[in-house]
Design goal:
2 copies of one chain form a homodimer.
Chain A lengths: L1 H10 L2 H4 L5 H28 L4 H6 L3 H9 L7 E2 L2 H11 L8 H23 L11 H24 L8 H10 L6 H27 L4 H8 L2 H16 L26 H32 L6 H17 L6 E2 L1 H9 L6 H17 L8 H13 L5 H9 L1 H17 L1 H21 L3 E6 L6 E3 L11 E6 L5 H17 L5 E5 L8 H16 L3 E5 L3 H8 L3 H4 L4 E2 L2 H8 L7
Parallel strand pairs in A: 5-6, 6-7, 7-8
Antiparallel strand pairs in A: 1-2, 3-4, 3-5
Helix pairs in contact in A: 3-16, 3-17, 5-14, 5-16, 6-13, 7-13, 7-14, 8-9, 8-17, 8-19, 8-20, 10-11, 10-12, 10-17, 13-14, 13-15, 18-19, 19-20, 20-21, 21-22
Chain lengths: 578, 578
């Protein structure tokens, strides 16, 4: 029973806070939920539009995930729902498969969310959260910049009323320029006005409010209400002047009520096509979520469990899928709102879900005249903050290879799409890492006169013998560097024709994998063929225990010495300290 | 002029040995060439058959590569030509594209060789030989076993005269069993007899010859003549009894003369399809070549240059391509023959090319009655030595994750083909490596009483303070472990609520990449948010120089101390040693 309770506690973090839930916290969480609900409405609608989905799908994707995260999540502040990157990746994954807005498209989006959830779930159960390390900082940062540019460019279509097509930034930009004449002036005026308004609100409103005596945190929250105000004003304008008859695209009738629960279409061919995008969405979404969660948790010295977060995000995506939504992740801006509004428990998220549900049930008719241009402007302003070209320069200055990885990710994402850009960025990061690790520091050693220390012969005035080669490798012997070690030893032996003994100092070796072991065997055999005895010195205990299980120690032509000094003095007694 | 000479010497190793070439060496090399030529004939024909190509293509692929390697190669013994793995990979790459033996098929094989050569050339110019490290020992060994099984099973078709189809081992094996009734008894008798003969020759002949007084090295060479003898006998038998009219498949008429030089078809769609196979053939071929070259070189304390070997292998493949051949690599058995026959310079290889050319010009009519069964038997016996199941057990015992990588490579290669198996094996090796590196050893430190040393609190009775967290990470901070470090520090801080200072001991950190730097920035910011000052101690010089170029040191809330003791005493003077 106790074990069951422990497991339940491990996988259901709600059991930690729910029993201690107080009435006072309830009131606080309800207030937070009200604020966050209002802010999430434009966001949910906008990201649905970005993903090529009808408006109500954005609302659906903002209910179940919030509920599930309240049960399974370990962060007190993370808000899970549609976010920019995963919405764009959803578009990139499904646009080639089905016509935007069609039932097949909506079904594929739900299937994508299910697959993303299942992948996250498997990663969580197997504790494979470390796989997210593949997304190095240069890749994530480059992805942010490229996605920001691509989304901003894509939003020029609803924002200015210019039709454009194409899956990549390049194709879309070309199409935009070609169709520039088809601009709709009413749409453009609304779009550009909202962009300017949102920029002004974001830049100056908080400062203004603080000046007139409103508290800092409340000012911060109010300054984030810009999109809500813009939406209300534009709805009033469009319906008042009947601008939709002038070619201004509006959201139109949004179905009233809650989504019906259903599993997405089970179609193996479709799932197969969605597998790679789902994997990438899972990892990108997870990396984004965990970094936001950790940043917010540390502000209150709370703890976030990376493996449980995989499970939580998995349930959120599965929840989104069966309630007619699309892939979700923990969002930066929505979580900040949650945090700053003062969310004390994940219950605030659950109440927000309730709020969105009420909107879906009662308020969707109010959204009829909402112009797509206003939503486009909201996204446009939000994503431009993701674009950070300076990061390339700064990163390149610190680490050229990382700078190149970042630039490549950006260029390829813009030119060939998110999936190609991401895979290439990961590949380059890995290759560069492998390159660095494949050439560990190696020192040829000599004896410091009058001591029993051995030092690098290049940096110290030390005693050596033409009979003996002494070498130290400052790294574990793994497959990335195993062959390098073979080559270096071959070179050293070719350069010192009188050598009869080779002593490898193993003091810096923490592990030897199977490839490393094979290399040691080859080295031993080759040295033997060349008439040289191979010795080891200062082998760490666990390494020696491992080697004892193999035949390498029987094959070894030389001995294993406790210290390098013991080895050299045993081979050449003249080295003995007086 | 001097610089040109240096570059020429670097890229044209022939300039090293050719000027000192002596008449005596010439005679020796000619004898070696004669022996090797005889042995290469069945090999060349057999591997062409394995790759699904006409017999003459095997001869063509054995000329230009030998010539080019003599000019560009750095090994004195490596013999480059068709080998088992790359022949099978050629088959796997082209079989889905064109009908075996058709002009399109032959053209695609040449295009594949060109692409392989170009990829190797680029890798060589950019000194990207380290990419071959991706092929860890478990992957290469698993590949050898799987390829050995698959080729052996595939040769049952010519060997027994049973028709079979399918690109993977699984498909082929199923097809073989289904068609077992169609066995041709004459073919099967020839095939099985040759297999038995070759096994006996290989196992006993050398010993027998040594017993009757023939020198050990000559016996070794003669024992390798088994395939040649088998071919002569079976040709005589088939032509004498006219067995080809009984359904015994023969090589038939092989065009006389040298190949005409031509570029392979330039067809972007085709090249695109061949790119991944070409990359894998390039890397697999290179890894196989370099390890044979290094093994043989070390026996005579010669030096092999890994980057120049890329260039050399590139020219060999380009040479094979323009002379109507298919992808080539340095072969183990052919190089051993070369070495044991006593090749003193790469000129022996060039003379061998001449020998094969003479065969192509004058002797191809003799090959008319050569039964495919004899060639199949030759391959069958040769590749079975690549199969090594014991390696899985041994590797698993030493390193379970490496054992799993090996087993996966074998299973997936047999089930889904060489390309999928290789990619999966590489992926698993990388993931497991990343997993190991992503969790470096981390120690919380305390002061050894009465000293100024800090040791792991888990292993030593040390002094600590609730105000200070002291930590050491035993690894460079790279993207694979950067996020782990963030999480660990979050955990430590959550577990020690009274902490006001965090001191990171950097004595074991050799490098910090851009991801590591970002993590340090996050850690600093999060600690600051939680009211904790972040200090560094014992930072190595080059690391500090790098950090000085960034804004991290301005953001750092604490100080950088020369020693960990200095840091702790500065923060809590009560720790001071009396």
């Amino acid at each position: 029973m106790n074990k069951v309770a422990l497991i339940a506690r491990r996988y259901l973090p709600i059991l930690e806070w729910a029993p201690q839930y107080k009435p006072q916290t309830l009131i606080n969480d309800l207030v937070v939920a009200l604020i966050v609900t209002i802010m999430l409405i434009p966001q949910s609608l906008a990201y649905a539009q970005l993903a090529g989905l009808p408006a109500e799908v954005g609302l659906y994707a903002s209910m179940a995930p919030l509920l599930f995260y309240a049960i399974f999540g370990t962060s007190r502040s993370l808000s899970v729902g549609p976010v920019a990157v995963t919405s764009l990746m959803t578009l990139a994954a499904i646009a080639p498969i089905a016509a935007q807005g069609s039932p097949e498209y909506i079904g594929a989006a739900a299937a994508l969310a299910l697959l993303t959830g299942l992948i996250l779930f498997v990663l969580g159960l197997l504790k494979l959260g470390f796989l997210s390390n593949f997304m190095s900082f240069p890749v994530m940062s480059g992805l942010g910049t490229a996605v920001g540019i691509q989304i901003a460019a894509g939003q020029l279509t609803p924002l200015l009323g210019i039709p454009a097509e194409g899956g990549t930034f390049l194709a879309q930009a070309t199409s935009l320029v070609k169709n520039a004449e088809q601009i709709n002036s009413y749409t453009a005026i609304i779009g550009i006005s909202v962009v300017v308004f949102l920029f002004l609100v974001r830049t100056y409103l908080a400062g203004l409010l603080i000046k007139i005596g409103i508290s800092k945190s409340l000012s911060g929250i109010l300054a984030k209400l810009g999109p809500v105000i813009a939406i209300i004003i534009t709805i009033v304008l469009v319906s008042g002047f009947n601008l939709n008859s002038q070619g201004v695209k509006i959201v139109g009738s949004v179905p009233k009520g809650l989504p019906s629960l259903a599993l997405p279409p089970f179609d193996l061919a479709l799932w197969n096509q969605l597998l790679t995008p789902a994997l990438l969405i899972a990892i990108v979404g997870y990396v984004a979520s965990i970094s936001v969660a950790q940043t917010l948790a540390s502000k209150k010295r709370q703890h976030v469990d990376p493996n449980q977060e995989l499970i939580a995000l998995a349930t959120c995506n599965i929840g989104a899928s069966i309630s007619g939504g699309f892939p979700v992740a923990g969002g930066f801006s929505r979580s900040i709102v949650n945090f700053e509004a003062g969310a004390e428990t994940p219950a605030a998220g659950a109440f927000t879900a309730l709020g969105i549900a009420l909107v879906a049930i009662f308020l969707t008719p109010l959204l009829y005249f909402l112009p797509s241009a206003a939503l486009g402007a909201t996204i446009f302003v939000a994503v431009l903050s993701m674009v950070n070209f300076k990061a390339i320069k700064i990163t390149y200055a610190y680490s050229p290879s990382d700078g190149i990885a970042m630039a490549t990710t950006i260029v390829l994402t813009l030119g060939l799409g998110v999936i190609v850009g991401l895979i290439a960025g990961i590949g380059i990061s890995l290759a560069m890492y492998l390159y660095r690790t494949s050439k560990p520091h190696v020192a040829i050693l000599g004896l410091m006169p009058g001591t029993n220390f051995f030092k690098n012969i290049e940096r110290n005035d030390v005693l050596t013998s033409t009979k003996i080669i002494s070498m130290r490798i400052d790294e574990s012997i793994y497959f990335p560097n195993a062959r390098f070690l073979e080559t270096r030893i071959n070179e050293m032996v070719a350069a010192q024709p009188q050598a009869q003994h080779f002593v490898l100092n193993c003091s810096a070796i923490n592990a030897i994998d199977a490839s490393g072991l094979e290399s040691l065997k080859s080295i031993n055999q080759r040295l033997k063929d060349g008439g040289i005895t191979f010795h080891l010195s200062e082998v760490k205990g666990p390494i020696l225990d491992g080697l004892k299980k193999t035949i390498f120690l029987n094959q070894l032509t030389g001995k294993i010495y406790l210290t390098h000094y013991d080895a050299v003095v045993d081979i050449a007694p003249s080295f003995k300290k007086e």
